[in-house]
Amino acid sequence: MTARARLLMFLAAAAVIAVFFAVACVRLPAFGSASHPYGDRAVAAALEHRTANVISSVNFDTRAFDTLGEESILFGTVLGATLLLRRARDERHVRAQAEDVMTTTRLFGALLLPVALIVGVYIVAHGQLSPGGGFQGGVVLATALHLAYVAADYRVLKRLRPLAVLDVADSIAAASYSIIGLTGLIVAGAFLKNIAPLGTFNEITSGGTVPVLNAAVGVEVASGLIALLAHFLDQAVEIGDPEQRDTPDANAQGGT
Amino acid sequence: MGIGPYLAAGWVLLIALYGLVTSRNLIHAIGCLAVAQSSTYLLLLAVGYRSNGTAPVFSDLTPGTRPVVDPVVQALALTDVVVGATVTALLLALTIQLRKRHHTVDPQALTGLKG
Fold it and tell me: Which of B59, B73, B100 sits opposite A202 (nearest CB)?
């Protein structure tokens, strides 16, 4: 199919989608309307379980089962990327080079890395109180570690990154989510039921199982993301092209 | 305000689909897919908005004093972001392998099957 024919087909389909979508929008409740029955019920449920951040309450209390699926997707992606990005038999392993970095950049990284890690832990720990939680804090934790790569070089990052430990932590955190759910099933008769003491509203120990699940997801996201990025970075830094030795310029075009 | 925000979400989706259809580079196509996905964030948040509403976080807000936006769709948007990130990661991994085995990232040049 030529590019022109493809574009014409797309334009016809897009016109149909646009018309149907616009007609559907007209029948939606007006933007900004006051009626949100599910929202009101979610707010009431969160306050009843003494969780200040209603979104965390929805994610880790009322819809905790859906979040189990969500974190399983993440776990599956880490597995899939590990499988896809493994070193093939015909690829060479190139040792990462030590890079020359300005002393000020190095100092900046050394100062900022612990601060960024603490911010990540803070966001995970306060998921039930303020915007944030396991997913967001986990991403902050994983990117904080990569300051070592930005401000120094790949060798420093590799020394800071115990991949074997992180792989195990990822699996344990993913499993612990289900174990917390099963505890609810055994103790209270419902999977992922909020069984822990609810604590005091607006204190760090509030929300029952919400902070526990947040911590499990935080560990899983942080270690999973570090492992995921490790495979991508290995591809870029440490794995040589299979045919590079024969034809150095064969792969120069495209992709950049 | 009417239905403007909903239509904006639809517009973002169609622009992203246009990018996908005309794409000559898989990395660009994955970017377009991410844009298409972000149209769903826009739609979800537009559905959940309540006039003069604030964030549904009660650590510094007494319940009942101000309208809050719908937290359910915000939680759905979070799920959406996570799924979007995982899909992007897997597609980028596939693109790396494709580039290695077929020496191109142009989807229109990938015609033959190769074992």
Answer: B59
Q: Is the pLDDT of residue A105 over 70?
A: yes
How many structural domains does chain B have? 1
Position B114 in a domain: no
Closest CA to A124 of A139, A111, A143: A139
pLDDT at B115 > cutoff 70: no
- Asked if the C-beta of A252 comes within 8 angstroms of chain B's C-beta atoms, the answer is no
Q: Is residue A134 part of a domain?
A: yes
pTM value surpassing 0.90: no
Residue A244 pLDDT class (50, 70, 90 cuts): low
Q: How far is CA A110 from the centre of its chain?
A: 24
**pLDDT classification of A18: cutoffs 50, 70, 90:** very high
Cβ pair B71:A46 closer than 8 A: yes
In whole angstroms, what is the distance from residue A57 CA to residue A60 CA?
A: 5
Q: What ipTM was estimated for this complex?
A: 0.87
What would the two tokens of residue A54 be?
């209603």
Verify whether the Cβ–Cβ distance A55 to B14 is below 8 Å.
no
Determine the 3-state secondary structure of A206 from DSSP. strand
